[in-house]
């Protein structure tokens, strides 16, 4: 049997936590490498950042086809109407990946952001660690849907990210 890859579906959004400057820089560096590791086209960042519906509607229409799009702000950041991006991602049932730097794993950012996304019904496809060291035993103990790690050199560590993402999507369906 041959693995045929990811289902042709709505593009996936990659999110990260931190200040807007931190998130933008992290996704600018890691996003294209992650898209390459997943064998998905890298799409421009979602805009406008203060009004999620037009950006998510464009993704849902699939005009750009399957791919990986970046959200340049923390998904918990409050918008002008008082809601947050996590609520919009959940309302649109937008498949989402969470990218965290290895240094962020010394905080509760992974668990807190997963809880936020799940609270709002976001189809969270998994977490990806950006940077080293990858500690698979520790990640398993956390009980979060980790897919693996991606290093700054573009090398996936610990798991085939493309296969892991496809399996997460199949399990969620």
Question: Which key phrases capture this entry?
Answer:
173 residues; 6 helices; 7 strands
Question: What does this molecule look like?
Answer:
- It is a single chain.
- The protein is built from six helices and seven strands; from the N terminus they run βαβαβαβαβαββα.
- The protein is an alpha/beta fold.
- A seven-stranded mixed β-sheet has the order 2-3-1-4-5-6-7.
- Strand 2, helix 2 (52-61) and strand 3 (68-70) form a beta-alpha-beta unit.
- 39% of the residues are buried.
Task: Give the helix/strand class.
Answer: alpha/beta
Q: What's the main sheet like?
A: 7 strands, mixed
Bulk shape: globular
Can you count the beta strands? 7
List unreliable stretches of 5+ residues.
1-8
* Structure annotation, total helices: 6
Beta percentage is 15-25%
Q: Whole-number average pLDDT?
A: 85
What is the secondary structure topology, with strand pairs?
Elements: E1 12-15, H1 20-37, E2 42-43, H2 52-61, E3 68-70, H3 85-91, E4 96-101, H4 109-119, E5 124-130, H5 136-142, E6 146-150, E7 156-157, H6 161-172
Parallel strand pairs: 1-3, 1-4, 2-3, 4-5, 5-6
Antiparallel strand pairs: 6-7
Summarize, please.
The protein has 173 residues and is α/β, with parallel strands linked by helices. The chain contains 6 helices and 7 strands; from the N terminus they run E-H-E-H-E-H-E-H-E-H-E-E-H. Strand 6 (146-150) and strand 7 form a beta hairpin.
């Amino acid at each position: 049997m041959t693995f045929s890859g990811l289902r042709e579906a709505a593009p996936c959004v990659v999110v990260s936590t931190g200040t807007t400057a931190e998130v933008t820089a992290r996704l600018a560096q890691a996003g294209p490498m992650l898209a390459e590791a997943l064998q998905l086209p890298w799409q421009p960042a979602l805009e406008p950042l203060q009004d999620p519906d037009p950006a998510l509607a464009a993704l849902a229409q699939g005009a750009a086809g399957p791919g990986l799009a970046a959200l340049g702000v923390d998904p918990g950041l409050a918008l002008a109407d008082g809601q947050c991006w996590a609520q919009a991602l959940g309302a649109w049932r937008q498949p989402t990946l969470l990218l965290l730097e290895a240094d962020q794993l010394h905080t509760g950012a992974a668990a807190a952001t997963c809880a936020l996304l799940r609270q709002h019904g976001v189809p969270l496809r998994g977490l990806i660690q950006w940077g080293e060291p990858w500690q698979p035993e520790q990640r398993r103990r956390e009980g979060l849907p980790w897919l693996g790690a991606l290093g700054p050199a573009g090398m996936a560590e610990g798991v085939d990210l493309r296969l892991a993402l496809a399996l997460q999507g199949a399990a969620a369906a």
